[in-house]
Amino acid sequence: MTTSTRTTAFPPLADLPRARASDLKKLGWRAIMNALRIRGKLSVTNHNQPEAVILPVAEYDAIRQIVERSEVQTEAALAGLRRSFDERLAILQDRSAAARLRTHIRSRAKLAGKVKAGSTC
Q1: pLDDT of the residue at 84
Q2: Cβ atoms within 10 A of the Cβ of 9, count?
Q3: If residue 7 lies in a helix (H) or strand (E), which one and from where to where?
Q4: Starting from the edge strand earliest in sequence, which strands make up the sheet with 18-20, in order?
Q5: Residues 5 and 15 sit within 8 Å (Cβ to Cβ)
Q6: Are 68 and 38 in contact (CB under 8 A)?
Q7: CATH class for the region spanning 12-55
Q8: C-alpha dihedral sign at 12, 15, 21, 24
Q9: HSE, side-chain direction, 13 A CA sphere, residue 59
Q10: What average pLDDT does range 43-57 have in this prediction?
Q11: What is the predicted pLDDT for the residue at 113?
């Protein structure tokens, strides 16, 4: 499903066709399902406030698949960040890290007592 399909397939709640809860009771499920086939999806309202959305099973499955793909992508991104963090942390936890840092600072910092701002020495 492309991005443009997603945005048109899932309009904002306020843009959905409405069916009153009293219509659901009065007309019955069959009439609501006929309206669903015609309109695509319905916002069921009670006292003019949305309470539920009825949508076709295929659309529900499409939403579920989008969520699952998103979860997989999020988990993959987090795994990459964890790996990167662990690699950096391992470098800092190395026994020789402090000594290497002191040596590096001493060899690069020839400031003659002056403070120097910036990212390079």
Answers
A1: 93
A2: 16
A3: helix 3-9
A4: 18-20, 42-46, 49-54
A5: no
A6: no
A7: alpha beta
A8: negative
A9: 16
A10: 92
A11: 62
Distances (CA, A) of 109 to 91, 98, 115: 22, 16, 10
- What residues contact 116, with CB distance under 8 A and at least 6 apart? none
**How many C-beta atoms surround the C-beta of residue 40 within 10 A?**
14
Which residues, other chains included, contact 16 with Cβ-Cβ below 8 Å and sequence gap of 6+? 41, 42, 43, 53
Q: What is the pTM of this model?
A: 0.55
CB 43 within 8 A of CB 50: yes
**50-70 b/e with 16+ CB inside 10 Å = b?**
eeeebbeeeeeebeeeeeeee
